[in-house]
Description:
With 683 residues, chain A is mainly β. Helix content of chain A is 6%, strand content 55%. Chain A has seven helices and 37 strands. In chain A, the strands form seven sheets. Chain A has a 22-stranded antiparallel β-barrel. A five-stranded mixed beta sheet of chain A has the order 1-6-7-4-5. Chain A has a two-stranded antiparallel sheet with strand order 2-3. Chain A is globular. Chain B has 368 residues and is mostly beta strands. Chain B is 8% helix and 47% strand. Chain B has helices at residues 2-23, 74-79; strands at 44-49, 59-64, 69-71, 87-93, 96-101, 106-111, 117-122, 133-139, 142-147, 151-156, 162-167, 172-178, 181-186, 198-203, 208-214, 219-224, 230-234, 244-249, 254-259, 266-270, 273-280, 285-292, 297-300, 313-318, 325-329, 336-342, 348-357, 359-365. Classes of the chains: A mainly beta (683), B mainly beta (368). At the A-B interface, strand 25, strand 26, strand 27 and strand 28 of A face helix 1 of B.
Amino acid sequence: MRFSLLQKYQLGIALLFIVSAWNVSATEKVDSTKVYSIREVTVTEKYQNTEVRSAAPLQILSSKEIKKLNALQVSDAVKYFPGVTVKDYGGIGGLKTVSVRSLGAGHTAVSYDGITLSDCQTGQIDIGRFSLENVDMLSLNNGQSDNIFQPARLFASASVLNIRTLTPQFKGKKTFHGSASMKAGSFGLLNPSVYFQKKLSTKYSAVFSGEWLSANGEYPYLLTYGDAGDSTSHEIRKNTDVNNFRLEGSVYANFSEKQSAYLKAYFYNSDRGLPGATIYYNTDNFSSQRMNDQTFFVQAHYQTDFSQFLSFQANAKYNYGYLHYLDTTYLNSIGREESLFYQREYYGSASFLYRAFSNMSFSFSTDGFVNTLDAVYESASLTNEFARPVRYSLLSVVAAKYVSEQLLGTASLLSTIVSEQVENGASGADHNRLSPYVSLIYKPFKKQDLRLRAFYKNIFRLPTFNDLYYARIGNTDLKPENTDQFNFGLTYEFSIGKRWPLFSFTADGYRNHVKDKIVAMPTGNIFKWTMVNLGIVEVTGLDLTAETTMALIDNLNLILGGTYTYQRALDKTSEDSGTYGHQIPYTPRVSGSGKAAIETPWVDISYALLWSGARYAGFQNYAENRLPGYSDHSISASKELNWKDKTLNLKLEVLNLTDKNYAIVKWFPMPGRSFRATVGMKF
Amino acid sequence: MKFFNYIFRIILFGAAVLLLNVSCDDMEDKQHIQNSVTESSVTKIYVLSEGLFQMNNSTLAVYNFENQKMTTDFFTSANNRGLGDTANDIEQYGSKLYIVVNVSSDVEIIDASTGKSLKQISMFDDNGVARQPRYVDFYKGNAYVCSFDGTLARIDTTSMEINGIIKLGRNPDGICVANGKVYVTNSGGLDYPGYDNTVSVVDPDSFTEIKKITVGLNPYKIHADSEGDVYLISRGNYGDIPYKFQKINSVTDTLETSFDDIQALNFTIHKDTAYIYNYDYTTQTSWIKVFDCLNDVVISENFITDDTKLTTPYGIDVNPVNGDVYLTDAKSYTILGDVLCFSNKGELKFRLSEVGLNPNKVLFIKSD
């Protein structure tokens, strides 16, 4: 492949499905080819190429691939990335957070169309709330992206999960198209959605997406009162109902070849029960805890090329989050525990990219944002005592990138300045830190697609507002949790003719070091826990991925893929702690995923597997804390029917085939075998 | 046939990955620290451990001094089911043990020698809301169980049925019997910062509350001495109002003395000697005092006379046969705790390591 001068600088996110790419040659079906036109990126290539050419590990799932994973929510799909642990409390409404390479959920940033989602209160994003309905691509960067032209905040976490929604694409003279779908399934699942795109003029187009999801979520499970062989009882998960509503609208503008923008508004409302742990002899335990949360944000993006050498982008966002928690069985005198939280974020970012030399580019980004949290509790005195923190953050990053035929390297230095103010009590410390990053990927042989890569990143996560100010448990003396990541890997890909157009393989060994880990400890009494900086964790791991596509016979394609992760995540806090050298909780030593799909002209069959070794639900690696490993198999059959320019999609999924109520989080059983049917229409 | 060659390679690769998955799980359970100790005054001790909230890992361990054998999951092995979540109290009455399990909201009555459950009494109100029982004491053939929902339940120890429930104050958190009356501390612990500050006095014959005595804020553990004096801890507000050791006169049912300089967290009384300890969560230091209940004076400011260090004292009990003092150490609350046995001179006799998660109570059994 020959790159133009401009293209030579960058290899960013570009996307073309393996299978569709191959179909292009086979059947000339151009419509399934998608190209991301992030300005820095002009290279169109198979995304596996992007994965194997990335200096820091990058995993990508296209919407078509996601469909093969029998996934409903973003969290379902993310589980297939190597090195990822999704903490899933089970059921549609259960909290799902993503931890990458044993660093903890607070170290993973989640971006939505290029702008970071934030939850300053908990520091982690519930990725179960994001639908896959309008998602075009999910990607996960370990360390950070090779793309240096992006907001500073995307440089400021140990890993980044990117959610990209579908962008306007119009074929021929068509100015309006869309889709509608209806999903129905076990445990009362109903999920209608609509999506459409409208070309408003040559420059403007609009996208609208809406969805409603409801389920009673009452699934049966087997409760074992001890180990295998001990008593069991058949129970039904209670207080699991979910009622989610999402509305999303965007306007995209392409003012010229060199100038583009979008404006997006997003609203999400979720009303759900919070099923507690399954407590022996009290399985209805806490079955009256309710949660209502709302998210509203508006975000805008503008990008322009001032010249061949200089590009600029600006991003802005306003985010409002509301959360209402209510427990009407709390044994205090007014008979309820209730809290309301209001979060706001005001965010602005500006970035410049300067292509100084043919091989070298530099970027500078600066982000400023303000986060606030307000709370109302059932008790007036608690409400009056609440800190009402305001956090001011200024992130600035300078980055450089070098690209040649055989070498790609990036380096960045991030400055974080944080200042915090509160209305009541002490405030968390101000922070002023510098965080370096370097990455390199080298292709030693011109004719072999074999690459060696490495990165180093030092970054931290700030204590969250909950860590600092949560009633009765907050601790304003907390320091940030610091991480160092080292990664060495190799990537390889080849293709052999038409029959075997792709084989890609990546292997990455890594070493992570976490210092000042923020953990909860009881103080005052057993009811009064507080957050403290205690803990050193050393993670030594290996991530392997492999993917291949084969044409068995004409019109019959086989796609196989798998990931494997080995993680030795050991507590190294202190030798006499009783946990020294023990694997940290909820981190399997080995885990993996697999997928297989057969595409035929008649029907597509997909099989997906998630697999995890044993984990420990406690801090000590003792038998009583052991949580057995599990495997989750799912299978689906789907069929597309075309009529003129309309397409009817039919899909039937069987999830958790083996019907085992395995647990990812102890005492939060996962649903057993379930079914889901989808009818979709594209017009 | 080049194509099949590739297929073969892929299958090989798949097999290799699978093999990797199966064979590389080198995560093996580590073994508890075990120690062998001897003691002749009793045949065995039971150690109740709370476990962690919402983890269903309360345990009843037994250490048999005759064969030096520790069974950490004694209840589970005797009953093929776990004890449940947050077991707060265990007491012996005749040949039965009463275990109060707070979050599972039940009282397990087990045979004191076999550990077999004789009855599991679920404690829920008419609306199905868990009462959350906390502590138990006995009087004239009845067990009295105070629960966090503000109630006191009376259980007939022969029929093992609840035969009465009355309403007391907010979030009861301690119980004892003195002078023919039942005393229950009302902590109001869930009403932070507006805690309760009363002790309910219950007449067991009429099973009615006859008085509420005003004591310090947030009262907790309560025990009586041989003279019928009732001692208690009030925990204050964990802020400007400190812990206090206090005394109620059970004849007049009034608060008689506040020992303001004894800012303690927990205590027990054996033969009119109180062993009182405190643990300062901020400085992570603790002390144990010895207190003479007859003369109401501290007789030792530092019970431990050797250089034994406790991390986090969590429970204190005295061997009724020889007066040895057993302290449980919860360490960091998230790892298994120890039981330490001190002679009444304050010298460490032995340590039983890694008995359970948050051990809070030791019971002494002498079989014939």
